[in-house]
Amino acid sequence: MFALKENMRIVPETPEKPEDIITELNLLESKHNYLAMLSGIRVAVDRLDEKSNKH
């Protein structure tokens, strides 16, 4: 999406239309749950920051 927006070359075998990219990303997300994983990492980082700021 960034490459398209910035008029740069896209990665080979990447769909050219934004709608197709979004569809592919949604399919990958439903299969692998990347957003939940990233959310969990964010929670862990926040907790570590809280602990380190208390000392």
Mean pLDDT: 93
Rg result = 17 Å
Q: Helical proportion?
A: over 70%
Q: Give, in order, the helices and strands.
A: HHH
N-to-C span: 42 Å
**Inertia-based shape:** elongated
> Would you report the number of β strands?
0
Number of helices: 3
* Largest sheet features: none
pLDDT under 50 segments (min length 5)?
none
Strand content: under 5%
Structure classification: mainly alpha
Overview of this protein structure:
This protein is mainly α. Helices cover 73% and strands 0% of the residues. The chain has three helices and no strands. The protein has helices spanning 2-5, 18-32, 34-54. The termini are far apart.
Layout of helices and strands:
Elements: H1 2-5, H2 18-32, H3 34-54
Condensed summary:
With 55 residues, this protein is mainly alpha-helical.
Which tags fit this structure?
single chain, 55 residues, 3 helices
